[in-house]
Structures are given as C-alpha cells and as structure tokens.
Amino acid sequence: RHSARSPRKQQRHHTMPQGPFASAAGVGRAEPEWAALNKVTGVCGVDSQHAGGVTTDAPIDLGPEVMSGDLSGLADKEFDLLIVGAGLSGAVLAERCSKELGMSSLILDCRDHIGGNCYDYIDEHGIRASKYGAHLFHTKFERVWDYVQQFSEWLPFDHRVKGRVPDKDGVKQLVPIPPTQDTVNTLFGANVHSEAEMQAWYDKERVAPPSGEATNGEEAALSRVGKSLYEPIFKHYTKKQWDKYPEELDASVLMRLPCRTSTDDRYFGDEYQALPLRGYTRIFENMLLDNPAISIRLNVDFFKAREAGLLPKFGMLVYTGQIDSYYAQLGMPKLEYRSLRFEEEWVPEPDDGFFQEAMVVNYPSPDVPFTRIVEYKHVPNQSEAVKAGKVKGTLLAREYSSAEGDPYYPVPNPANHALYEKYRALAEKEEGVCFVGRLASYKYFNMDQAILNALEIYDNMKETGKLAPKRRPEDFGPGDGPK
Ligand code: UDP
After folding, report:
1. What is this structure's pTM?
2. Does the Cβ of 237 fall within 6 Å of ligand 1?
3. How far is CA 267 from CA 7, 158, 162, 360, in A?
4. Buried b (16+ CB within 10 A) or exposed e, 309-331
5. What pLDDT sits at residue 478?
6. Of 38, 219, 235, 271, which residue is the least packed, with the fewest Cβ within 10 Å?
7. Does the Cβ of 233 fall within 6 Å of ligand 1?
8. Pick from 256, 228, 227: which is nearest to 241 by CA?
9. Alpha-carbon dihedral 191, 193, 196, 197, rounded to 10 degrees
10. Residue 436 burial (CB < 10 Å; 0-12/13-18/19+)?
11. Residue 172 pLDDT more than 70?
12. Is the CB of 230 under 6 A from ligand 1?
C-alpha cells in the first residue's frame, strides 16, 4: 500500500491521563474488535518542523511581515498563483504546485492565522483547542492518506460520539450515535443481541420512501433508521443545526451518519482514522512554511486589496472563499451558509479530571439550545502539558448553530443548488480563475474530500496546464454515503 514516499510506520509511546474515553485498546480507541478495522495502527508520518527542532506545541509565530496585512513589499513581485484562503484547498494547491511544478504562490487570508477552519491552538490553560470546532480526520482514499502523512505525525483514533437521548419514557440516556445495538436496547429495551436481530428490528421500523428513493433528509432518515430513532436523535438535532427540518434538506445530509446493525460505535467507517499528533495547524505549517516559493500574507481582505490596486502581478487566481461573495457586485441573491458559535467553559476541578464521558456528546433534544459539547482533553493528541498530567481542569466548547457569522456549511437543498448553479455558470466563464473548496464549490466536503479535490485540480494543472477540477463536487458522493 505504501508508496516509496510514504513514511515508514514507527511505534512510539505517548502517555495520556486515562480518561473515561479509553477502551481496552487504548485512549481514543474503540473496543478491540472495531479498533482493528482502523488501518492506522501506530504513530506514523513525518513532522518536518518537529524533526527540524521546533519544540513548541503552539502554532509557530509567522513573523511581522506575514501578519502585517501589508502587500506593499510585494509590489514588484510576480507570482504564478494568487491563492485566496489559507485553508486545505489553498494549502494543497500551493504545496503541490511549488514542489512538483516549481510554481510560486502568494496566499492571502483575511484571518490572522493559516489553516482555515482546521486551525487549532493552545489555550491559556495549556489545552489544544479548535477555534472552529472539532475536526476528525478520516479517509478511505489511499492517495489522501499517503499525502497527509508527509506533513504530520499521526495517531490512530476511532472517533466515537455519545448522545443524551430521551428513552421511551422520556428519560435521557447516554447512548452511542450513530445508533448501534446498545442504542436501541437502552432507549427501547429492544433486547437485540446479534446483527440478525438488529436487522429484524430495523426491518420493522424502516419506512420505505414513497417514490422508492429518498428525496429529502426526512425520507432518508426514516428509510434508514425508522421513526423511533428518527424522532429523538435526528429530527430536532437537524432543526437546531440547520434551522430546517430534515424534510427541507437534501437526503445527503442525513446520509452522512452511518447506521449500524452491529455494536460498532465508531462514528466513521473509513479505513484510515487518525489525529495529527501536534494538531491540525502543524499540518499547514509543514505544507507552507520554509518554502521560498510560497509567500503568505494574513489579515488581508482580497477584495479590498484588489479594489485598492494593491495586488502584485499574478498568473492565475485560486479562489477558495464564498462563490457569491466573488460576484457580490452583480446583486444576485446570496447563497445560504450555516455558521457555528462556540461557548467555551473552563471547568477547573472536574471529578476524575473530565466533565463528560466522551470527546463529543450530542444533545439532539429540542429542550437544549446547543447541538453538542466537545471536551478537548479526551483526545490523545493533546498538548504535552495535558499528556504529562499537568492540566487539572478541562475545557468545554458548547456548539450552537447560527445563521450569522463566518460561513461553515453550505445548506444543501434544491433551492440553494439551483442558485449555486447560476454562480457556477458565471465561474466557468471566468478566465484565469479557479474556484475550489467547500465555500467556492458550495459542497459539504469533508477534509479528505477537500484534499482530494485540490489534488485532482493540481493533476489537471500538471497534465493540461489548466487549474480545473477533474470531477464535479457532487461526484464525490452524497456526504460520506452510508458509512
Ligand atoms: N445528525 C443528527 N443527530 C445527531 C448527529 C447528526 O440528526 O446526533 C444529522 C444532522 O442533520 C447533522 C448531520 O446528521 O447535520 C451530519 O452530522 P455530522 O456530525 O456529520 O455533522 P458535522 O460534524 O459536519 O457538523
């Protein structure tokens, strides 16, 4: 499986306070039967910054020039690529085009850091936290897995989510999400103890979509899990997350969640599931820093800089922002995006060191305003201070969904797709501009899909000299498909 470039796996030992989120297979691992399905078996990959002597756990200081928001020092330079956005799509294109094709890039971002929504940092208490919500890397694409191992060391991690879900008597129970045998036994006393029994339980519960195929999120969920699970786990969570009921959303949104007949309580079914040992920001640092062909300027609003004539000369534009912002001056209706708001809480003295039973606990009921609570301390890629047991407290992030704020999610439904198609038609006619990524393609890409999409755009650059996608975003499949 491993290509010549692929770093060799090395077994190393990292200690971590034993939390309630451990299994017989270790911290952050599922029970051995399911953990064995993860092809990531030990620490692997290369962190060049670390290998080169960088010892900090926190994001690397990028220096005053990068942070300045000032493009004047670049006025007489010329770049092959001007890349708007320092997230996954922009970083992959800058890295590939410089390493393989000798092209130069200038990356601009209006934020004060690289990494886009993957950005994580060390908070004042010494805990590694994600500024824009927890990110869990998983992929079935070997190409993506081989690629990301060049920019980080990785730890195997089987992401498992619990939900506080009302049972048949309305009493909230802690159960695995996606639903497993445990979930239906705890909520409904289903007394299911084999895959065949669980299959029979689903067969009784499932509601076939009227037209044969699910045409919206509600039909998708009902056809997969039936009404008893749909109501307490999916219906209101979805309303809270999207401010739309599942019937107002594409089937693909609800298809993101697997549905299990086994006791497999992992959130994802992909072959490779791992955490970057020193956080996600480090991946970007290894991709972008110390490369003379890549320049970065943060705190720069691309549109304002362009308007003011401050941009240096460039060959092609790679735009990873919202596609409707690019065409704002046309006065067309805006695309709908969903944002998140995080309410952080520091718990100084949690019992046994932890606040909750898992890294992510979902709250799918309508009586709780947030969708989930993330407790960062549970992950085995925590800071050195946490791993050494020096951090007594624990940091929580309660996640609220909102219409206002930075765009996180495109809202997939027929009306939004139709509007996006109008923007896409404009984008296709745009010479010398490549629209790429979750916001520019208006596609609910997972991290690995965003990386693969950018890698394929680079392939086209290499093969044809044009930055163009190899397939349309929807050809990456609906969400993850059944996991
Ligand atoms: N979902 C749900 N209940 C849950 C978890 C997820 O109804 O407890 C639905 C909801 O519509 C959500 C979608 O499944 O938006 C995708 O969930 P996922 O965890 O993949 O979303 P993300 O992590 O991308 O926010």
Report:
1. 0.94
2. yes
3. 27, 8, 10, 11
4. eebbebebbbbbbbbbebbeeee
5. 52
6. 271
7. yes
8. 256
9. 0
10. buried
11. yes
12. no
